[in-house]
């Protein structure tokens, strides 16, 4: 199963200057819980936004750079190559950025979204989701609190077949 996992603002904002534009510890916990032990597919800029590779996950990085070879990562040059290199019977998580989401939305089986209930200035966006093709199977609202500056909702969608 191919799952796109992302935190997005009210207008599908993902980030600005290759950084997240909010800090939501519960979203980080959910991301870790869902993706640990799996293949995670990302663009080079998303990978480079991490201080170091994420533990207990296999990193598949998409780039056009010929000699790009971070240690203990798989490097490919297309979304199709990234999917092909992952085990066929395991869950694959596409984790960004905007261009990678755009290239993979049509092949995704599932969306794990954190909708941040605020509008932000951004330069990277999640693609528009046509909800007539998706079924909402889980929704969990979280109000802002001392650790979370914004209200947010965890949303899980599966593709209608």
From TrEMBL:
GO terms for biological process: dihydrofolate metabolic process; folic acid metabolic process; one-carbon metabolic process; tetrahydrofolate biosynthetic process. Pathway: Cofactor biosynthesis; tetrahydrofolate biosynthesis; 5,6,7,8-tetrahydrofolate from 7,8-dihydrofolate: step 1/1. Keywords: NADP, One-carbon metabolism, Oxidoreductase. It catalyses: (6S)-5,6,7,8-tetrahydrofolate + NADP(+) = 7,8-dihydrofolate + NADPH + H(+). Residues 1-159 form the DHFR domain. CDD domains: DHFR. The keyword NADP applies. Coiled coil: none annotated. Pfam families: DHFR_1 (PF00186). This is Dihydrofolate reductase. It comes from Flavobacterium capsici.
